[in-house]
Amino acid sequence: MKKIFTAVMLVSAFCLCLSCIKTAGDGSAPGKLMFRFEGNPKELSKTSAELPDTNEFLITVSDESGSVIFDGKYRELPEAVDIAPGSYSIFVRSEDFSGLKFSSPQYGDEQCVVVPPAGVMTVELGCRQINSGIRLDISPDFLTAYPDGVLFIRAGDSRLMYGYSETRIAYFCPGTVSLVLYENGEETLLLTRTLVSQEILTLKVSVSAGSDPAGAGGISISLDTSRVWTNESYVIGSGDSGGVSVDAAMTVSEAMDNIGMDDVWVSGFIVGGDLTSANASFDPPFKSASNLLLGPRSSVSSRESCIAVQLPSGDVRDALNLSSNPEMLGRLVCLKGDIESSYYGLVGLKNVSDFVLK
C-alpha cells in the first residue's frame, strides 16, 4: 500500500517554502532531526492513481548556507540525524522532474524547519502532487477540419506533440502552459493558462459549427474542471473513518494515537521480531514465530518507533512470522486487529484476524 500525506509540523515553527529564517547556533549543543511520512487522505484525485512508495522517494536536506547535509533515498536516511542548531531546507520528491512528459506525476513536499539547541525536530513530510498536468479531449470534427494540423503543448522551453488519439496527461512544472496549432509551416497560439501544483486541466478541443477551416478562428476550446486534483487533510478524532478498510488503513503512528480501537486495519513495514519486554531483533535469523514489529518505514531500527504485533496461531502466523518466513522482513503489510496499550512494553496489535501484503 502506498501512502500519501498532508504536511504538518510536530514540534516547532515551519514554513512551506525554502526561504528559511536564520538562527544563531554557534556554540550550542547539537540537536536532532527526524523524519516521517504521516496522514492518510482518502482521495488524491477524481480518478485513481498509482501512488509511489515513499521509501523510494529522493530527499535533500540543506543548511541555511545551501550546503547539502543529506542527498539520497528516504530509505537510506538515518532514523535520527545529529545536527547543529539552525535552519534547514527539506525537499522530498518521488522523482526528479523537469520539462514536459506524459504520465509523470511528481509527488513530494518542501519545508523549512528550525532545529533548537539540544532539541528534537520531528518533521512530518507531506506527499502531494507538486507538478501540474494538462490533457486534451480532441473532437473528431477537429481532425476533419485540420487534417494536416498538429497540436503541441508548450511549457517553458519544452514542447510536446499531442496526438489526436492521445489520452494521457502531460505533466510540467507549475506555471504557464500553452496549446499551439502547427499547420502549413505556421504556428497559431490557441490558448494559454497558468496552473499551480496539483492542478490537472482538461481542454476539450472542437470546431465551431459553420466555421472556416482555413483559419483557427473556428476552433472552440472549453475547460473541464473535473480533473482538478485536491489535497485533503486527515485529523485524528475528526470523525474520519480511518482503519475501516485496507484502503483506509491507519499508519503506525495513527495506531499509537488510537489505543482501544478494535477490528481496525493498520499498515506498516515488518521490521523485526523476537520481542521481549525490553528488546527486539531487527536482523535475521529470528527464533520466535508468535510476534513481530511493525514500523513506519522499512529502515526503522528503534523499537520505540514501532508497534508490537501478536501473531495468533493459524494462517496469519504461518504466513508472516519471520522465523519461518525471513523474506517477510521489510515487506509492507496491512493487518486487521485490536489496538491495545501494551504488548511487550509497546503499543500492541492483538487478535489479528486478517492481513494483506503490499
What features would you describe in this structure?
- There is one protein chain.
- This protein has three domains: about 10-130, Immunoglobulin-like, CATH 2.60.40; about 130-225, Sandwich (Immunoglobulin-like), CATH 2.60.40; about 250-355, OB fold (Dihydrolipoamide Acetyltransferase, E2P), CATH 2.40.50.
- Helix content is about 5%, strand content about 40%.
- It contains three helices and 24 strands.
- The strands form five sheets. Strands 2, 4, 5, 7, 9 and 11 form a six-stranded antiparallel sheet that branches. A five-stranded mixed sheet has the order 8-15-12-18-19. Strands 20-21-22-24-23 form a five-stranded mixed beta barrel.
- A hairpin with a 4-residue loop joins strand 4 and strand 5.
- The longest helix has 6 residues, at about 140-145.
Q: Secondary structure elements and their pairing?
A:
Layout lengths: L7 E2 L4 E2 L15 E7 L20 E6 L4 E6 L6 E4 L2 E8 L6 E3 L4 E9 L4 E6 L2 E2 L2 E7 L1 H6 L4 E6 L2 E4 L8 E3 L2 E9 L2 E10 L4 E8 L11 E6 L27 H5 L7 E9 L18 E5 L11 E4 L4 H6 L11 E12 L2 E12 L1
Main beta-sheet annotation: 6 strands, antiparallel
CATH topology of the largest domain: Immunoglobulin-like
Report the top-level CATH class of the largest domain.
Mainly Beta
Strand content: 35-45%
